[in-house]
User: Fold this.
Amino acid sequence: MTAIPLVDLQAAHAEVAEEVREGFDRVLATGAYIKGPDVAAFEAEYAEFSGVRHAVGTANGTDALELALRALRLAPGAGVVLPANTFVATAEAVVRAGLRPVLVDVDPEYLLIDPARAAEALPGAAALVPVHLNGQLAPMRPLLDLAGDRPVIEDGAQSQGARQDGRVSGSWGRISATSFYPGKNLGAYGDAGAVVTDDEELATAVRLIGDHGSGRKYVHETFGFNSRLDTLQAVVLRAKLRRLPGWNEARRAAAARYGELLGGLDGITLPGTLPGNEHVWHLYAVRVEHGRDEVLAKLHAAGIGAGIHYPVPVHLQPAFRELGYAEGSFPVAERAAGEILTLPLFPQITAVQQEQVAETLVKALH
Ligand SMILES: *Cc1c(COP(=O)(O)O)cnc(C)c1O
Assistant:
């Protein structure tokens, strides 16, 4: 039995290797490592892909969220509603932007931010950050209705190309952020991210703040920092973006295959798709009601790169203790954290690999 990784980055690289090498050669020949022509080209291509007019490349996804929040110029210390079940970066960006995370619980079926809980928290808050967890959009229509005049900022780090009612991730919020961390559906060869928006003023503000507050060399109009997309990463992202629709389709086929292989099995619940969503399966997370950690250990022992995303919800992280939440604050997120188990899924995964995962999982469950 050969090992099966959670994500196979080499398999993705093999598909773009030639294009990436040619692109790197082009950049190396000019030395335009910062703000080279590939950055502008990628930004235009990614804006179009996201159904908006503007995309601004950033150094990573956490910065993209921070820049989006800073561009909105909310009152210092204002509350920002976000789900407890997310990668910690969502909450970090809120704090970094000088704002206050207001966490809410998720729904028990899809583990996406629960509109009923968001409704309770929004009156005391200035903005809402839904997280499109695991590759599917949070319920955007109810959330936009609830938010009213408050800006909605999508955390689309896990959902490049995902749709709801036909409308693509990144085009729902007033401004949205994404990450091109290597393991994401659209992954760079290092850290990278982007902000997307239809609003020209916001796009300009993001560009300014992420480039030392400067639109013209040595004129610093506003306080900023350095968070730009590298030209070499833009080369990689351009090559991969062209493959992304096909790759997302392959992920959907692989998710369907797990459905066939694992459907009806006792002891696990398979992930569902919220009605109206076109899922891009960034992560395929099943739930194991009893003995999840033993099942995970058995998978690892058999060379299967399963994981847990995420084992500890944000409100129980030591770093966020001062927000004042405790065990029991968000029971749905807490229960899920003890049950979720992510199986290997990537566009190039083979039927044989998936059968091997399923076989090992069935044995581990019994
Ligand atoms: C990956 C991720 C981020 C942060 O992205 P980085 O590029 O690693 O900074 C933010 N939010 C979510 C939900 C993520 O999965």
In short: The longest strand covers residues 54-58. The chain has two domains: 9-241, 244-365.
